[in-house]
Specification:
Blueprint lengths: L23 H55 L12 E3 L2 E2 L11 E2 L1 E3 L22 E6 L6 E6 L4 E6 L1 E10 L19 E2 L7 E4 L27 E6 L4 E11 L13 E3 L2 E3 L8 E9 L4
Antiparallel strand pairs: 1-4, 2-3, 4-5, 5-6, 6-7, 8-12, 9-10, 10-11, 12-15, 13-14
Amino acid sequence: MTWCKWVNHKDKVLPPVTKHGFTLVEVLVALVVGLVVIGAVYSVYTVQQREYRSQQVRLALQQNLRAAMVIMEEEIRMAGYDPQGSGRFGIIDVRRYDTVLNEQNPEGQPALFYTVDVDENGVPDARNGNRNREWPNLRVSQDNDTGRRFLSWDNGGGRHPLAEDIVAMGLAFAVDADGDGRIDVWDDGRHLIWAVDSDNDNLLDTHLDANDDGIIDAHDDTDADGRITAADGGRIDPPLPLQCIRMVRLWLLAASAYPVRGHWDNRTYVVGDRVFGPAVDGRMRRLLETTIACRNL
């Protein structure tokens, strides 16, 4: 049998219970540290979000431009398609047009009107207003309600948006004026003639590489008026007819529909014969350029 011994603790003195807490200073320090950490995390988050949005805008602009370029290259190569060899098809109009109204405007955007023998009968079909697949055109248009510009393509059914937020298009043309089968160079030099119509009479009268360094850039605008004209040193005299065109140089400048926070574009863009300086509107801009050999001209 086991006996249990009861112990009486009444006479035993137990140590006092000590209760610990935070002082006001400790609480304030913890709050400050927590706020600093939260602020740092939020700052990193906002920076990442801003960069993500910028990348999305940049990617959208790039994709928009590339898609437009692919279609335009295909279409321009078709200019003058004439399987019967009639000589009645080609580039027919390179004048500037108003972006809103369907009329010529020397201060507007350059357009490209061309003909193709779709039914291959050797005869350009009669135009029903602007509704004819054999008389397509490419140009920059503007929406009356929003003011946003877009690249439009009319292939016989009216103007349709081909790419959005295209704010400027540039065109220049390499030529064979003497008909010897070779692209002409400027002033018997090494560099090709890149001709434009400066006075909107549908004749090529200005060579864009005015300083003949082989590069079309802001330095060719010698009088710094924002446009490369015959007065800058590249006068073509006499002017050349459009039938001389053999290659097309194409520029497309796109701008984001809305400003991008924190974005500042201090670059200068040359789009054909126009020079666009640094922008202060916060919109992101992208420029693509290509040269197209016209296999049907």
